[in-house]
Specification:
The complex is a heterodimer of chains A (about 290) and B (about 70). With about 290 residues, chain A is α+β, with helices and mostly antiparallel strands. Chain A is built from eight helices and five strands. Classes of the chains: A alpha+beta (about 290), B mainly alpha (about 70). At the A-B interface, α2, α5 and α8 of A face α1 and α2 of B.
Chain lengths: ~290, ~70
């Protein structure tokens, strides 16, 4: 049985069915991600003045690794170029070229996910420490030369430590609002590219210890939710493109026009996923 | 909208992103930042220019492919 309008355009829509289908799906995706972007905006505008961790629910600034985020953005833009080139290669009847571009696209997707995993791991080893005097500091723990992940005060007590060595973050310049000059020693540290200072803190002086996880602050909740949801889309898209490019590419021999349409539909989804990141990157990393 | 049309939209949005990033970097530099901020701003501007050239070449080279 032949599936109607898999290749030829339907007279009423002017498009083959899969293209109408993917655009309807992408419309639903816009609503999904739109809801999360709206949530981000509402959380941010309702945050009290001042910056976290100085102010308990103030919005944090400069906690994410911008060079890594920028590199990941470049990786995704490259993958969008290669997926279009793969589709055009099929239109020009160059299957070997198509395969090469698809391989680069899938590698870019996997590279993006690997870098994101590294970023997540870094956050799970980054802590906010509340002291008994009410002040909060952020930094990495140094326990016998290693940086433990996802520790709480219970883990510190279980390790029977009396003091914690902490690579305390030097406050970044975003923590000093316009009109409040940056203290001289911090300014010098910024100029020298220094980011941490080691400090030993007595465990008895600590009232709470939390890693940078969703329950620590609304920023981390929305950051992890949005980037993980986006990461799932990247993973799903990469799997589909891998299937089209390698396992399921036999259709090129039996029905090349339909196969080319499949790649176009996959490419449209991939462009959408990349476009979401193009909005996510400045919103979460820069602003 | 075909993949070609969506790609053109995507590249245009990417060019806007590079402008946002470069203005963010230049803003940081003028606000007591380091030469690294200036360098990142210039790199971002260059990337935007490269994307614009790519977009133009893409449109010229593949003008026979439909936008629909």
């Amino acid at each position: 049985m032949e599936i109607p309008y898999a290749v030829k355009p339907r007279p009423d829509t002017g498009l083959y069915n899969a293209k109408v289908g993917i655009w309807l799906f992408l419309a639903s995706e816009v609503m999904l991600f739109g809801a999360f972007f709206s949530t981000y905006i509402l959380l941010r505008v309702q945050a009290p003045h001042g910056f976290w961790p100085d102010v308990a629910l103030g919005w944090p600034h400069g906690l994410l690794n911008i060079p890594i985020g920028t590199f990941n953005t470049a990786v995704l833009i490259t993958s969008s170029v290669t997926v279009v080139m793969a589709w055009i290669a099929l239109k020009q009847n160059q299957f070997a070229r198509f395969r090469k571009f698809m391989a680069v696209t899938v590698l870019c997707a996997l590279g993006f996910l690997a870098i994101k995993t590294f970023e997540y791991r870094e956050k799970f080893g980054h802590y906010v420490i509340q002291l008994n005097d009410g002040s909060r500091i952020t930094g990495h723990l140094n326990v016998n030369g290693s940086s433990p992940l996802l520790w709480t005060l219970k883990d510190v007590e279980a390790a029977k430590l009396e003091a914690l060595k902490v690579e305390v973050d030097i406050p970044n310049k975003f923590r000093f609002p316009v009109g409040h000059p940056i203290p001289e020693d911090i300014h010098k540290a910024h100029q020298a590219g220094e980011h941490h200072r080691e400090r030993e803190i007595k465990v008895s002086d600590i009232s709470s210890l939390k890693a940078f996880i969703p329950s620590t602050h609304p920023f981390f909740a929305i950051y992890f939710t949005m980037t993980f949801l986006h990461g799932l889309h990247v993973f799903g898209g990469a799997m589909v493109l891998f299937y089209f490019g390698f396992i399921g590419s036999g259709m090129w021999k039996t029905d090349p026009e339909r196969f080319t349409n499949r790649i176009e539909v996959g490419g449209l989804f991939w462009h959408f996923v990349d476009l979401v990141w193009i909005f996510l990157f400045p919103v979460v990393y820069l602003l | 909208m075909s993949l070609k049309a969506f790609h053109v939209v995507f590249v245009s949005v990417c060019i806007l992103l590079t402008l946002v990033v470069s203005s963010w970097c230049f803003g940081n530099y003028s606000d007591g930042g380091t030469p690294r901020d200036l360098a990142w701003g210039l790199v971002s501007l260059f990337a935007g220019g490269a994307l614009a050239v790519y977009g133009k070449v893409f449109l010229r080279k593949f003008k026979n492919i439909s936008y629909l």
